[in-house]
TrEMBL record:
Species of provenance: Achromobacter aloeverae
Name of the protein this chain belongs to: Multidrug MFS transporter
UniProt keyword annotation of Membrane present: yes
Endpoints of the signal sequence: 1-25
Family the UniProt entry places it in: Belongs to the BexD/CtrA/VexA family.
Record's bilayer topology term: Multi-pass membrane protein
Amino acid sequence: MNTLLRTFSRAAAMAVLISSLAACAFAPGMRYKSDFQVDPNDPNSVVTVKEITPSLAREMTEAASAPVPENVRNLIGKPTPYVIGPGDILSIVVWDHPELVLPTQTYSIGTGPTELTFGDTGAGIPGYPVSSDGYVQFPYVGLVKVAGMTEAQVRNSLIRGSRNYIQDPQITVRVLGYRSKRVYVEGEVKTPGPMPITDVPMTLPEAINRSGGVLPTADRSRVYVTRHGQTVRVDMNKLTAANIDPTSIMLQSGDIVRVVARGDNKIYMMGEVTLPSGLLMHDGEMSLAEALGEVGGPSQTSSDPSQIFVVRSLPNATPEVYHLDSSSPQALAVAGKFPLQAKDIVFVDAGNLVRWNRFISLLFPSAQTVQTVTAVQHQ
């Protein structure tokens, strides 16, 4: 019995001593350290914390709803007639001259244009294939350069070239097989893959719709268009909010459209929240108050609501930290206007009493171990 009392006396004395030396520092779990050096080799790498105030929240909201970036506006254009290119297949019919019609063609010109899939040779389509250097060969006229021309321009060229052999030639030119131009759609769409550009203007919504439309897992705020090695992020929701018709974004041959999954852009809720988890943003948008609400808010039994931090990683891997004191619910009104960004980390620190409790819960099992060892030694 005396041994037990001595053991607890030592443990109590140790607890009092450590508590006087800030025992909370020994408590398990992550905590925010204002003097923490992000780079251990750089004493100047301590992050300056920005307080989340109404003015900062308004500033961040205005920045999030900024006008459509210039690089997105550069994608806006007007529809133009289809320009013929190498590999396309043309139907050329001279009316009232059946001897000039290909044996496999008729005056009805088949059933209309064909959108060929990637790698299709088009061998089954009756017509004149455009050679790799952009020519077709037509009776009497000979080789005609058609690449870079529209249907109307090719027709006029053939009419001029055949007037010496045909009186008042009536010629119809149509593209039957579209093989020279395509865009590529990938990501969260129903049927990703190459999409031929036809006489229907290839706008961004057109490319996505011809791919079967976006999946429920898609993030409409993160549609990326890559052109000539440069990638532009297009926020479809922001375009609509800015009264810009998404169909005004014209794609070019070789463009790559990638629709990102919502799961790639989460908000991570950590620390003393009711349900720590990763949250999916709503089409690229979520406020701090919404994020806290979806996880049940700061824990009523373990959190210090005055210590809520938003940690954001900058492109150079250095952190940017924002602090919210929500010890009173009024602060949640400010949090409702503070927009989060993809991959932000929201951390809620623990209260000092909770840290002390955790420290004690670890300390007393240690005291029991000492008691057991002492009892064994005296046996």
